[in-house]
Amino acid sequence: MEDQNLELEVSKLVEKISRLHAAISKLPSLSPSPEVDALFTELVATCVPSSPVDVTKLSPEAQAMREELIRLCSAAEGHLEAHYSDILTAFDNPLDHLDRFPYYENYVNLSKLEHGFLARHAAAPARVAFIGSGPLPFTSLFLATNHLRGTRFDNYDRCAASNDRARRLVEAAEEGVRARMAFHTDDVADLTAEELGTYDVVFLAALVGMASEEKADAIAHLGKRMADGAALVVRSAHGARAFLYPVVDLDDIRRGGFEVLAMYHPTGDEVFNSFIVARKVEISGHK
């Protein structure tokens, strides 16, 4: 009976998410608007509560729907961040108004958690890379201002327009923060060992490599080029949140040359990702 109840719960969840996917797919634009905001708010509210769903066991049709929905979420998130980056940059002191962003508190809490987990396993890093930083580099900003005040942050995004927006935002930061933040227009696949080997910590954003094989390829690329002993923080998803973001397979992290140190799944109403902290395994004779 319990198994039947769980199956029914999952079936109803997938049915509701499928209806939302169909409605979102018909939108003429994913830029912020009352209709777009309402649909994505309902989608997030549906996916955030704890759920017994295992997305790896979904039907092929549901798997295809989920993959397309993640791409739609990625595009909508890009539009939302660009929209608010432009709004914030219009202020004389943009960083004083970051809380206007709808998910500001979630980023504050996520960066605090990630720093706490990192601090358990590694010394304060001298250099951090954030791959997939986007037009609102909240994680780098919060870490630089609240937790890692002596660390240099290199933010990578393959979209030049996103980097331009982020750069304009950071230009208003105090000198101590501004001087420690740089922005680079690059794809993760193009980053070399000479670049990646200089970082003590690398963050991989949730939407870098949206399909599972793309994510695995990105992790493998990092594993071949990061310095031995460096930490990797990978954002993932769990339960119904996996309809919003890709799930990272722990075996892909291990195959990439990393030791998994810790994993965190949010259980409350926080609208942020799971994350995994790993360490690049030292290989004898590795250069």
* Mean pLDDT across all amino acids: 91
Helix content: 40-55%
- SS-based structural class? alpha/beta
**Largest sheet, described in full?**
7 strands, mixed
Please identify the top-level CATH class of the largest domain.
Answer: Alpha Beta
Using the CA coordinates, give the radius of gyration.
Answer: 19 Å
Low-confidence stretches: none
Could you state the CATH homologous superfamily of the largest domain? Vaccinia Virus protein VP39
CATH topology of the largest domain: Rossmann fold
User: What is the level-2 CATH architecture name of the largest domain?
Assistant: 3-Layer(aba) Sandwich
Strand content: 5-15%
Which series of helices and strands comes N to C?
A: HHHHEHEHHEHEHEHEE
Function: Synthesizes nicotianamine, a polyamine which serves as a sensor for the physiological iron status within the plant, and/or might be involved in the transport of iron.
Keywords: S-adenosyl-L-methionine, Transferase
Organism: Lolium multiflorum (Italian ryegrass)
EC number: 2.5.1.43
